[in-house]
């Protein structure tokens, strides 16, 4: 089976470093390590467990986006105030 399809996964720098270190411990490349974990989880979790994990990630993603938007807004207002002080 050819492995030509790719899927990119957003991770924090710390998450990526942790996963790469774990891959090195198992003497395998990070991509194959991620694949092994993903396929194992997908084939061993029950539908209810999978739904719970997916729902939790969906909520965490929404929170990260909200946090990022709040931070961007605070920078925008700070920058605007500094411009007005001129």
- Element order: H for helix, E for strand: HHH
Distance between the termini: 63 Å
Strand content: under 5%
Query: What would you report as the Rg, rounded to the nearest angstrom?
Result: 19 Å
Distinct helical segment count:
3
Instruction: Give the overall average pLDDT.
Output: 86
Helix content: over 70%
Structural class: mainly alpha
Short description:
This protein is mainly α. The protein has 3 helices and no strands.
Give keywords:
single chain, 86 residues, mainly alpha, 78% helix, extended
Word description of this protein:
- With 86 residues, this protein is mainly alpha-helical.
- Helices cover 78% and strands 0% of the residues.
- The chain has 3 helices and no strands.
- α1 (13-25) packs across α2 (30-44).
- The longest helix is centred in the last third of the chain and has 39 residues, at 47-85.
């Amino acid at each position: 089976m050819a492995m030509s399809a790719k899927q990119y996964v957003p991770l924090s720098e710390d998450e990526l470093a942790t996963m790469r270190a774990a891959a090195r411990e198992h003497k395998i490349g990070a991509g194959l390590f991620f694949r092994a974990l993903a396929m194992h989880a997908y084939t061993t979790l029950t539908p209810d467990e999978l739904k719970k994990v997916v729902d939790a990630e969906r909520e965490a993603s929404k929170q990260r986006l909200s946090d990022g938007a709040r931070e961007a807004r605070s920078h925008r207002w700070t920058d605007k105030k500094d411009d007005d002080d001129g």
